Amino acid sequence: MITGDVSPLGEPTLTIRVHGRSEVVAVLRAGVDTGFTQYLCLSYETILALNLAFKYPMEMELGNGAIAPMGVYDGWIEWKDRLRRIPIHASDGDVQIGLALLRGNRLVSTSWMAAV
Predict the structure, then answer these.
(1) CATH homologous superfamily for the domain 8-102
(2) Cα three-residue angle 55-59-29, rounded to 5 degrees
């Protein structure tokens, strides 16, 4: 089981470890984005720091309907006690885990909202 937190905005988040080439590892907070159908989105800065290898370009439809070009890179994530090779998308936004990485898992999120 993987456990995480719920952000102050009510978004489920996980701490993940992403591996790059040359034994570089980044520990990151990632939001769970149920509208993102791929595996993982990282910033260009993080992709460069991890020295990930470019695989191919891809156009993606964003939540607002706009089409955006994205680079797809080859990377590894620690997932359920094993190292898993996945495609990683580059974006200008936050670190996001997508549905492809969650496939075969059950996502449960609980948060408390208080009114004053």
Answers:
(1) Acid Proteases (2.40.70.10)
(2) 70
pLDDT, one tens digit per residue, over 34-48 is 888 999 999 999 999
Residue 27: C-alpha distances to residues 61, 66, 69, 72, 95 (Å): 27, 30, 26, 20, 11
Return the structure tokens found at 11. 């978004």
Q: Cα–Cα distance between 65 and 8 in angstroms, integer?
A: 26
Please give the model's pTM, rounded to 2 decimal places. Answer: 0.86
CB atoms under 10 Å from CB of 28, counted, come to 17
Residues of the chain with confidence (pLDDT) below 50: 113-116
d(CA 92, CA 45): 9
Pair 86, 36: CB distance under 8 Å:
no
Domain borders along the chain are: 8-102
